[in-house]
Design goal:
Blueprint lengths: L1 H8 L2 H20 L3 H11 L4 H25 L5 H22 L4 H22 L10 H18 L3 H10 L4 H27 L1 H28 L2 H23 L14 H5 L1
Helix pairs in contact: 2-3, 2-9, 2-10, 3-4, 3-11, 4-7, 4-9, 4-10, 5-7, 5-9, 6-8, 6-11, 7-8, 8-9, 8-11, 9-10
Length: 273
C-alpha cells in the first residue's frame, strides 16, 4: 500500500494535477466556484472519461470542501437557512445526475447548461453595475440547488450555476460563497459514493490525490480573499469566470478544437487504462 502511494506521489502527472488543484481552489474558495470547473476542464482536455473525471473531482472535493468550508465557517461566511435548502435540493439533484451520467446522457446536458451559464455570466457582470434587491427566496434556492446537484454529478461543476444564480438574485456574495462551498461538500459525497462503484478506486488515485494536495494548500488563503475583496470587483470576477469556463466547456463538448490537449506529455491512454 505504502509503495503504491509513494509511486503515485512521485509521479510528475500527480504534481501537475496538484498545480491545477491549487489554482482551481484559489478561485473556488474566493469566488465560490472554479475548483470543479477548472479541474474538470483539464481532465477533459487530457482525455479522461466524464464519469471518471466527475468521480475524481468529487472525491477531492470531499476534503477540499471540508477544509474550505471550515475556513468560511470560522470567518462567519455561512448562512444556516440557505445551507439546509441547498444541501437537501443538491443531494437530490446529485443522485439524479449520477444516474444520468452512467447512462451516457451527460454530454448534451453539459452543452445545454454551458449555453445557459454564458447568459448567466453576462447578467452577473451587468448586475454588478446596477442595484438589485435580494430575491433569493427559499424556493429559488431549492431550484438552484437541485440544478447544481445535477451539474455536479454530470460535469463535476457546482459553483458556476449555484453561486452565480444566487448572486444574480441579489444574495450577499460573501455568504453565498461560504454557504455554497459547505453545501457542495455534501453533494460531492453523494455523487462520489454513487460513481465510485462504476469507475473503481485505482483509476481515481493519481488524479484525485494530485487535485487534493494542491487544493488543501490553497484553501485557507482563498477563504481570506472572499472576506477582503470589494463587492463590485468580486461580482464582476464571478461573471467573467462563468463566461470563460462555459466557453471552455463548450469548446470541448462540441469538439471545436479536435485533439486539443492541455498537457501534451500526459497520454490519455495512461489515465483511462
Amino acid at each position: 500500500m505504502w509503495q503504491s502511494l509513494l509511486a503515485i506521489l512521485s509521479s510528475p502527472e500527480t504534481w501537475a494535477f496538484a498545480a491545477v488543484g491549487f489554482v482551481a481552489q484559489i478561485f473556488d474558495g474566493a469566488l465560490g466556484m472554479g475548483f470543479g470547473t477548472i479541474s474538470a476542464a483539464v481532465l477533459a482536455a487530457v482525455g479522461v472519461p466524464r464519469e471518471l473525471a466527475s468521480a475524481s473531482v468529487n472525491g477531492a472535493k470531499l476534503f477540499t470542501g471540508t477544509a474550505s468550508g471550515l475556513s468560511h465557517a470560522l470567518l462567519r461566511n455561512v448562512d444556516g437557512r440557505m445551507l439546509v435548502v441547498l444541501v437537501v435540493a443538491g443531494v437530490i439533484g446529485g443522485f439524479a445526475g449520477a444516474t444520468l451520467l452512467t447512462r451516457s446522457f451527460s454530454r448534451w446536458i453539459g452543452v445545454a447548461i454551458s449555453f445557459y451559464l454564458l447568459l448567466a455570466g453576462a447578467f452577473i457582470v451587468w448586475r454588478a453595475m446596477h442595484a438589485i434587491p435580494n430575491r433569493a427566496s427559499a424556493g429559488a434556492q431549492g431550484g438552484i440547488g437541485f440544478a447544481g446537484g445535477l451539474l455536479e454529478a454530470t460535469s463535476g461543476v457546482w459553483g458556476p450555476l449555484v453561486t452565480s444564480n444566487l448572486v444574480a438574485l441579489g444574495a450577499s456574495p460573501r455568504h453565498v460563497v461560504g454557504t455554497s462551498i459547505v453545501a457542495e461538500t455534501f453533494v460531492a459525497a453523494t455523487v462520489f459514493g454513487l460513481l465510485v462503484s462504476h469507475v473503481g478506486f485505482p483509476r481515481l488515485s493519481g488524479i484525485a490525490l494530485g487535485l487534493l494536495c494542491g487544493a488543501l494548500v490553497a484553501a485557507p488563503f482563498a477563504a481570506l480573499l472572499a472576506r477582503r475583496v470589494a463587492l463590485r470587483p468580486f461580482t464582476i470576477a464571478v461573471g467573467l469566470l462563468v463566461i470563460a469556463t462555459s466557453l471552455l466547456r463548450l469548446a470541448h463538448d462540441l469538439d471545436v478544437v479536435p485533439g486539443f490537449r492541455l498537457f501534451g506529455y500526459l497520454p490519455a491512454a495512461q489515465i483511462t487504462e
